[in-house]
What we know:
Elements (H helix, E strand, L loop, with lengths): L7 E8 L21 H4 L12 E5 H9 L28 E5 L11 E5 L2 E10 L5 H10 L2 E4 L7 H10 L5 E4 L3 H9 L5 E6 L25 E10 L5 E10 L8 H14 L1
Parallel strand pairs: 1-7, 1-8, 2-3, 2-7, 3-5, 5-6
Antiparallel strand pairs: 4-5, 8-10, 9-10
Amino acid sequence: MNKQERPYIFCHMETSLDGKIMGKYLWIEETNAEVDSFYALFAGESAAYKPQALLNGRITVEDNFTFYQKPELKENFAPVPEGDFLAQNPGTDFYLIVADSAGKVAWQNGVLDDFYGHQKAQVVELITEKASEAYKAYLREKGISYLVCGKDHIDAPLACRKIKETLKVETLMLGGGGTINWSFIQQGLVDELSVVIAPAADGSTSTQTLFMAKAGLSDDQPVVFKPQGVKLMPDGKVWLRYLVDGKSAHDFAHDSEYQEVQEMLARQNS
């Protein structure tokens, strides 16, 4: 899509040395300085980035805000009009936007207080046509805005267009998890990648990584990045910045050496 039709989007994440975005390393004293460089880069008056909204996937939101509660949906509710719904603005121009295609997040209200340097953040749900009418009625009752973006999966370009046109967001921070990060990057919707690497690792094989392909949303065709900067931060973390150059054009299907390696690995695992 044309870049003028969407916000400027930067993906800002913290990882361990082994590329994890969740895990035990996040809980240790050595990665939790009083002034954490990851948060300082996008929150506060001296922040390097000044986003007007934060976009997360559902799992990230459940992990950090709603903790996998189930929404209490009513059997009897007033008919829900078609299309998007914008709740009354609670007096903030900052948004927490969540990609929640089926409508599962159990918000209790549409406003989060003291949100990463902002007094308030207004919640906005990105849902699809498969979200139930009962869930949409639930959001309306709670005063939570929603934008309908696709049939079965979130139509990322449409979501970006609506975020800019409807919410008037010019700069958007994409903050995980790994599936939504990779999906947006592969679709050419991310301008910049910012990675803060903590000086720790935990070796887990069961936690999310920075990027994760998912069938139906993305694949494992490599994406190329252009380095823009590296900086050692006061808390011992390392800040890396890249511009997103786009998908590699390498033809793996006709790369005989690559195919030979895959066949060897298949034999090894059989």
